[in-house]
Specification:
162 residues, alpha/beta, 5-stranded parallel β-sheet, 5 helices, 16% strand, globular
């Protein structure tokens, strides 16, 4: 199982910026913890971070046919980016959106996620642990999707034999 982890703008500044909101962990530390958890479950992770909306859209599109699912923190773009939402809808992969802070306790403009309409689920407000929760949810969803696909293929093969 292969999962793309896509990080949006300013997440490269974790551990430095607004620690009272985002905590002291760096993005690299979060990724290292994710790798450890993923390795225990036989999951391969690919990490990508960009401050540029178009690069995030490109990476989402590149996921089609390459990965089984996406774990994304669009950061500030979650509140504004129709382009990222459309890219997520276009690839139609199981996707979990993660936010470190509880966006519903923040400024009014941060309380709406445009991208959430294109994802399987959203995890918000659990700090860096939200990434682990998202990873667990995504691996379960992908496993279920693969099981259904295998069942459908088996039924098709049996129908062709008749």
């Amino acid at each position: 199982m292969k999962i793309a982890v896509i990080q949006g703008p300013n997440l490269n500044m974790l551990g430095i910026r607004e620690q009272h909101i985002y905590g002291p962990m760096s993005l690299e530390q979060i990724h290292e913890q994710m790798k450890a958890g993923a390795a225990q479950n036989g999951v391969e992770l690919e990490f990508f971070q960009s401050n540029l909306e178009g690069e995030i859209v490109d990476r989402i599109q590149e996921c089609l046919g390459e990965v089984d699912g996406i774990l994304i923190n669009p950061a500030a773009y979650s509140h504004t980016s129709i382009a990222i939402k459309d890219a997520l809808s276009a690839v139609n992969l199981p996707t979990i959106e993660v936010h470190i802070s509880n966006i519903y306790k923040r400024e009014e403009y941060r309380q709406k996620s445009v991208t959430a309409a294109a994802v399987t689920g959203v995890i918000t407000g659990f700090g860096p642990f939200g990434y682990h929760m998202g990873l667990m949810a995504l691996t379960q969803i992908i496993s279920e999707v693969k099981a259904v696909q295998a069942q459908q293929q088996k039924a098709q093969a049996e129908a062709q034999q008749k």
